[in-house]
Amino acid sequence: MKKIYVKLGSATPDFYWGLSSSMSIKNFDFSFQFQGSQGAELYNIDPIYWKSQFGGRLKSSFDANNDGIADASGKFYQETRNAHGSGIQDASFTALRNITLGYTLDSDLRIKLV
Length: 114
Known about the structure:
By secondary structure, the chain is mainly β. 11% of the residues lie in helices and 34% in strands. It contains two helices and five strands; from the N terminus they run βββααββ. The strands form two sheets. Strands 1-2-5 form a three-stranded antiparallel beta sheet, with no helix packed on it. The protein has a two-stranded antiparallel sheet with strand order 3-4.
């Protein structure tokens, strides 16, 4: 039986975006910056990590010979090598990169350098 491989998802986002603004009222000023991406899909390896030796002690499914040495012939590898669509997750994000709140002192309160 011939195996057919299908590419699931794309790690490249459909688009990146950003938003920044600054405003001031009287002596107060405020600014912020958001950044994000939309449309990327990635394979989540967390379940594989926690089932393997890296998530704790060596699992029996990771050690086929029961000799304490991880090997490629174990049931673990046979199950996780055949990745399927359930591990594909949306990788879109929004992040607040910068936020600033300031106050400008009156000119008579500023320290004057000579």
